[in-house]
Amino acid sequence: MARIIGGIGTSHVPTIGVAYDKGRQADPAWAPLFDGYKPVAKWLAEKQPHVLLFFYNDHATTMFFDLYPTFALGVGERFPVADEGAGLRGLPDIRGDVDFQAHIGEALVNDEFDMAFFQNKPIDHGIASPLPLLWPHVPDWPGTVVPIAINVLQYPLPTARRCFRLGQAVRRAVESYPLDLKVVVVGTGGLSHQIHGERTGFNNTEWDHQFLETFRDDPEALTGLRHADWVRLGGAESVEQIMWLAMRGALAPRLTEIHRNYYLATTTAMTVVAYEESVAEAVATPEDALV
């Protein structure tokens, strides 16, 4: 069967993609961030997953506020990388596995998640910003992507607990797929940051590190936070952290954190963290954790 072998939490700041495309990886302001991704890319190269399953949000690039779904799954062989104003990027289309995507979609609907589905739509920096830092892309990506978009822009937003439960349902969907695929689950979004209003530039490094510890060791404790709590602790845009909880829900209760890099350069706490599942944990997931 398909199995999840680990997870990655990563920021998806659009300027990361711009700096990458301009070859600024060694610039003093950017090197601490780009260097932080190298151990994760090395780990992926060693593990050779077939699939990266992304929980991300669209930034009103493909979906707009006149019809913005709570949860949306992309199904297609290829997804173009969006031009978000800086020009087309030199990246190949993101590859998809239609059979696997369709299986996950059907499993989630049967698990009583009311999913929306999209095809032939561009993917913005929610995925395309970190993706080339994780995977090589010449001449093409080494595997496929399952894109699952979560609404963190237009209220009402899904709760942290609902996102965590979505991740648990995704795990069940993956493990019910009959082909032998290795899957790494990726949750994207910045930690503390606010880019508008009276608290523009707000960060909370103490909360960021507390979140990362609790996220790893006791994620259920985070599922009771209201949206107002996320905003108070980390700034308005830090509500993106509920997408990390979807990733965490898809992973085993106990994990090994194999890498963490935290870098606060400007207005956004930019982070990449990697977690690995042991074979025993992957096989012996408690049933009550999947309710």
TrEMBL record:
GO molecular function: ferrous iron binding; gallate dioxygenase activity
One Pfam family cited in the UniProt record for this chain: LigB
Name of the featured protein: Gallate dioxygenase
Keywords: Dioxygenase, Oxidoreductase
Domain Extradiol ring-cleavage dioxygenase class III enzyme subunit B: 8-268
Enzyme class: oxidoreductase
InterPro entries: Xdiol_dOase_suB
Domain of life, per lineage: Bacteria
Family annotation (NCBIfam families): PRK13364.1 (NF009901), PRK13365.1 (NF009902), PRK13367.1 (NF009904)
Record-listed E.C. numbers: 1.13.11.57
